[in-house]
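Question: what's this shape?

___
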Amino acid sequence: MTAPQRLTDRKREAIVQAAIAEFRASGFDITSMDKIAATAGVSKRTVYNHFPSKEELFAEILQRLWTNVTAQQDNCYRTDLPLREQLGQLLHCKLQLLGDNNFLDLARVAIAATIHSPERVQDMVARIGEREEGLTTWIRAAQVDGRLKPVDPGFAAQQLQGMIKAFAFWPQISLNQPPLSPEMQTTVIESALDMFLTCYQR
């Protein structure tokens, strides 16, 4: 890669990070491309060269959120491992993601924009939601293997996700609480595993 290309990549990243900061501070509608350019330290023309519209810039941010979520997905069911061990690993990865400040920043932007203008980001947020529920596939595989009771996999996955997010997502998003400590992460995971497996394990 040439030096100019690297400079272009750096400028694009600066624009995205500036947009995240401005969307968080002012919301989607009030944030202007002029303000994003000023915060990024680039010209307005440079911003438009990378992103023809504010909607496309916001779509880039949502795409990153989706990519971050899907990159964490490793939900392959294993017949040779205990359910608790497998689920514990999945939940640990989930909490690592939910404790990432960049992920939380992107999630705040997406949620705020969805509240104010659902139609703007409906499709992208739906894609994020679908991929985030990869746990459903794991639960279905465990049912086929005869190790979990025949409950609706999507329902059970949402229950488990909800137990985690009640401590490690919504308080951080809505109340700006800090990410969970490693000790609290362990407590949340173990408690969620106890409740889930007590209810659904054969």
The chain has two domains: 1-52, 59-200. The two ends are 55 Å apart (CA to CA). The mean pLDDT is 86. DSSP finds eleven helices and no strands in the chain.
